[in-house]
């Protein structure tokens, strides 16, 4: 089932203006939802002045265009069956449900990042499925590999977006579209059997998994982990984006413990060591990691980078 159709009346835009009562870095808050420069669900137009997002919603697909006026007001226009749902969730998307006030920086690097970036908050997309597929694709492979697979699945099986979306954008494939992807197309997209099984298992119960966004916290992550192939790392990556979980640390990541270790204690760490170092930040450990990532710190490099594998050639 290849996705190349449009549904509903795409021509009429719905609009909303919202002025956040806090400093807002629009691009910085939305950045975790972007999966690489070629992400078919995201475009930044006019040197970052306008951000286009395409996603699924409980009501159907939607396209949204966001930009920020000089007075701080965010102006959003949305098209498609899911336009109203998306506009209703605009404040949550931009971090209105996040409360960073209780966060205490216990390290100069993090304290400096907090001071320099007051507009960073944890946004909530409220949509599990759209974050689940790319998170599973990122399991145990390089970002280059995962992003290539995400692009190819969206381009081949995702529908054209509603409204005047920039050329090349696609709606993420629906659970039904994913279940209809033949085996050889998974191979062509560079997705190995383990990740394919996890995505297909999630697709079979996708409607139930959306409840994780309502549960939030550890309960939401636990619900996601009931799906075979979704572990602690994948559940955390989803939780960070879908309900802005401030404590969802991506344990099991290839890079994060090393970066956090060098940044905060001057040496590489494993997951157990990172758990100890981040303990003072609970229940906002992910927020601490986010500030480390945004601080500009770069760990020392002592060897070649991990080489991507091309599953299409296997």
From TrEMBL:
The keyword Zinc does not apply. InterPro entries: Alkylbase_DNA_Glycosylase/TA, DNA_glycosylase. Keywords: DNA damage, DNA repair. The keyword Nucleotide-binding does not apply. This is DNA-3-methyladenine glycosylase 2 family protein. It comes from Pseudonocardia acidicola.
């Amino acid at each position: 089932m290849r996705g190349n159709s449009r549904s509903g009346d795409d021509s009429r835009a719905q609009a909303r203006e919202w002025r956040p009562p806090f400093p807002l870095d629009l691009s910085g808050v939305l950045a975790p939802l972007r999966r690489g420069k070629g992400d078919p669900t995201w475009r930044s137009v006019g040197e970052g002045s306008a951000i286009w997002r395409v996603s699924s919603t409980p009501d159907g697909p939607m396209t949204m265009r966001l930009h920020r006026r000089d007075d701080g007001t965010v102006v959003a226009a949305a098209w498609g069956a899911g336009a109203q749902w998306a506009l209703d969730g605009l404040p949550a998307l931009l971090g209105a449900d996040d409360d960073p006030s209780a966060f205490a920086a216990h390290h100069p690097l993090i304290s400096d990042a907090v001071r320099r970036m007051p507009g960073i908050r944890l946004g909530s997309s409220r949509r599990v499925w759209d974050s689940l597929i790319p998170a599973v694709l990122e399991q145990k492979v390089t970002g280059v590999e995962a992003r290539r697979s995400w692009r190819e699945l969206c381009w081949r099986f995702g529908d054209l977006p509603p409204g005047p979306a920039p050329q090349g954008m696609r709606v993420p494939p629906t659970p039904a579209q994913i279940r209809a992807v033949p085996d050889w197309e998974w191979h062509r997209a560079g997705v190995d059997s383990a990740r394919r099984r996890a995505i297909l298992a999630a697709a079979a119960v996708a409607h139930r998994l959306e409840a994780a966004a309502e549960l939030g916290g550890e309960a939401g992550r636990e619900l996601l982990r009931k799906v075979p192939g979704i572990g602690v790392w994948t559940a955390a990556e989803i939780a960070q984006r879908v309900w802005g979980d401030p404590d969802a640390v991506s344990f099991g990541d290839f890079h994060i413990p090393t970066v956090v270790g060098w940044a905060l204690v001057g040496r590489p760490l494993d997951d157990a060591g990172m758990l100890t170092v981040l303990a003072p930040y609970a229940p906002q450990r992910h927020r601490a990691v986010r500030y480390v990532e945004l601080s500009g710190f770069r760990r020392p490099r002592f060897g070649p980078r991990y080489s991507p594998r091309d599953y299409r050639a296997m």
